[in-house]
Amino acid sequence: MKLKQAGERKIIELAREIFRKGPKVKIGIGDDAAVLDLGCVGLVATTDMLVQSTHFPPGATPEQMARKAVVVNMSDLAAMGAEPLGLLFSVAMPRNLDMKFVERMIKEMDAVAQEYGTYVVGGDLDESDKIIISGVAFGQLKKGTALTRSGARAGDLVVVTGNLGAASAGLKIVLEKLPHAGFKPLVEAQLRPAARLKEGMALVKSGAVNAAIDITDGLASNLWQIARESKVKITVERELIPENPLVRRLAAVHGFKVDDFVLFGGEDFELLFTVRPAGWPKVKRALEKIGTSASAIGRVEAGRGVFMKTRGRSRPLPDRGYEHFK
């Protein structure tokens, strides 16, 4: 079997079967981040690799590359509810890359890290024919408070922050060189992403959230990840899923399918979580204090799979989204 047939998930499953879990490992392979038990606190660790030809649109500036490199790692910490401690970056670059480009990238990494209350504390350099940025983020949690993909329980509400579809719609505009007029916020969502770090910490503090994940592969795919890990059934209602209004306008102008952006597009970096119904008003108020909207879009039930209701009719939601190698 080739990688293009297996896909990223098969590799992760293989890694989970082979790698042994040490006594201090509380959460290992398969979640947004690992958690190590240090006694009074949990050390949260995550890593993300970005490759120039895969993760950045053509013509991406050093600032845009740097921002995304920080945000993808901060978003993983957000999904666990962790407070950031520091970042490491290993960067490979072509030898003929201009030093000014490198300086701009480093300055932006520093600035964005500080936006999230943390710092770049080290890393490594190497040579490559394209730019590759591999980041490692560390965070901390009070012992036993990490949000995971496996915590959803029957009866929970399914909630998402913000609105969806903007980042993938923005990427479509950039890749197909469509007119930006009237759609600049979509392009900005792709080129200047933001992590919901404060929101993740608020979810942990509430004590009412059972499971969480950040939306990077697309809503449908991330719903499936929670459903599989939690061994539950999730049903969402299409009419309740918040979408960026410009996405529907873009789709109408160019004949695109809205669901390709809202349900199956990735990199919105919003948080998808499940919460006990009694705790939902408290969580909603906590998010509103930060200035973040959140929408209940469905429920967790006993069973397996992910389903979507549209105008009262239920159908299976395809497990489709971004996956490496496929």
Overview of this protein structure:
There is one protein chain. By secondary structure, the protein is an alpha+beta fold. The protein has two domains: 3-142, PurM-like, N-terminal domain (60s Ribosomal Protein L30, Chain: A), CATH 3.30.1330; 157-316, Phosphoribosyl-aminoimidazole Synthetase, Chain A, domain 2 (Alpha-Beta Complex). The chain has eleven helices and 13 strands. The protein has helices spanning 3-18, 52-55, 62-80, 99-115, 166-175, 184-191, 197-206, 219-230, 245-254, 258-262, 280-290, and strands at residues 25-27, 34-37, 41-51, 83-93, 120-127, 132-142, 157-161, 209-214, 233-237, 271-275, 294-301, 305-310, 313-316. A seven-stranded mixed β-sheet has the order 8-10-7-11-9-12-13. A six-stranded mixed β-sheet has the order 1-2-3-6-4-5. A hairpin with a 3-residue loop joins strand 2 and strand 3. Helix 3 runs parallel beside helix 7, helix 5 (166-175) crosses helix 6 and helix 7 runs antiparallel to helix 11 (280-290). The protein is globular and about 55 Å long. The mean pLDDT is 96.
